[in-house]
Amino acid sequence: MQTRTEHRHFWIGTSVGCLLAVGLNLLPYLRTRGAYQADGFELIGFPFVFRSFGGFTYRLYISWWALLADILLAALFAFALGLVWSRLRTR
Known about the structure:
Elements: H1 4-32, E1 41-44, E2 51-54, E3 59-62, H2 64-89
Antiparallel strand pairs: 1-2, 2-3
Helix pairs in contact: 1-2
C-alpha cells in the first residue's frame, strides 16, 4: 500500500518533469527569437519542431502531429520522473 508521502513525492517529481519538458520545448524559441528579421527561422519544439516562422518568404508552419508527439513525450517523461522520484525519496 502506498503512503501519502509516496503520492506527494510522485506529484512533485511529475511537476518537475513537466516544467523541464516545457523549458526544453521553449529553449529553441529563446535561442532563435527574432531570427525572422534576418531571413532566419524562429523555432519552437524539442525534440520535434512543431512551429517555425520566418525565412525569405515569411512562412508560418505549424505541425499538429509534431505538437502531439511532443506533448506525449513530455507526459511520458513527467510520469517516469514522478515514478523515479517517488521510489528514490521513500527509501
